[in-house]
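Schema walk-through. Below, the input block comes first and the output block second. Nothing else is stored per chain. Lengths vary across the set, and this one has 484 residues.
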Amino acid sequence: MSGTNNDLAYISATEVARLIKKGEITSVEVTQLAIDRANATQGTLNAFITICEDQAIDAARSSDSAVSNGEKLGPLQGVPFTVKDLINTQGVRTTMGSLIFDENFPKSDAVAISRLKEAGAILIGKTTTPEFGHKPFTSAPIFGDTTNAWSRHRIAGGSSGGAAVAAAAGLGYIHVGTDGGGSIRIPSAANGIVGMKATLGTVPNDSNPDSFGNYSYTGPMTRTVSDAALMLSIMSGPHPSDVHSVGRKQKDYQGYISDPGDLEGFRIAWRPLLGNTIIDTELLSITSKAVKSLESHGAKVIEVDDPFESPEPFWRIINQSAWKARFGRYLSEWSSEMTPSFIRSIQEAEDYSATELQEAVYKRTTLFREVQSWFNEFDLVVTPTLSRTALEIDRDLYDPVMIEGKKAGIVRQAWYPYTHPFNLTGHPAITLPSGFHSDGLPTAIQVIGPFASDHEVLRCARLFEMCNPWSDRFPDIAMSTSPQ
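--- output ---
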């Protein structure tokens, strides 16, 4: 790739849309660039399950015609985007990372995807996910392994690993992920990008069979806070398919943060531990220093070490029970071609009683009340996003996490204890790059706000980004070719 093309691949979606509308570049140009880069990195990064080149170029030509003809243009006019392969896309294969759905072509788009297309965005492909999004390692029988954008020896994180790698590597400009326990925030942190799980109901989820008990979110994965805010502005708003979205209003989040003001009078709790006991020393130093930068905007940062019991054990009961109910019927026919860790997760659910499941549901409400009470004293809460940088490529779900030579515990409790609590409570949470570890990999912080305070979380994120700019850092990507 030429230096010019590399520069074009890494500009913001907001800027791409502006240049397209002014006629300085075309949608066909940037769409072809994104597709070429995606194809050229499949042999190294493996971020895509499906690249829909023909459909994307046709849509880009139509977009360019609209620009030439002076038609009404959308805020994402002609901007290439990707979608995690758990999310339905009309006429484009949606496998959920499983051989079971290898030939699944949905008849309609998910609500969030339909809204992005209506805003002018161009779908270029479906990014990798572990089978049914069940683990924070982006590997599955249908595609193999997706590696970290910064090191082929480290995992991408998951389950929205392909989307995070695509964002970090300049394979498209905006990316849609899902988050059931940290699946947007984990890989975003591991690859040095922005990833947001908005308040429950902000973005309608029309694919979950349990709308009332939903804890999975569709959200933006981008290189800048402004692009994440723009995506959220478009994807948000009520829809009759999602009970939590009914009555919610669509908001201009990007406009809200365009002049972010300051944090004068804000009390921010810094919680370096959240149910875990071990964190990488260097990562802790980097993130602690980064959080202090918010004081330059007027905030008061206060370290908090109140005890917190990890909700992962009852999150697991709820989650594994849901997987068994939804996908357990496939085991008898497909178990030889399914991921062993997913099969084990379903089998573990067989030991849960109905009473245990209901008790776990009750604990979800107790946890919400505990977290919401934090905001009686503080305006925002900040944590690290991960307890160490991306894990080694040969690890898997049931292997213990090693931190500085010590066994820290199981993956969900030891590597990302900071994310899944807020899937259960519904609070908004965004992960932001905070620096680089001496191992060459990104570190990250997570900002959490009161329920329905997405705009304030984004505003704080933008101010943090201004203090800790990262959009000019990108990995050295090896380009090769691989048959599709």
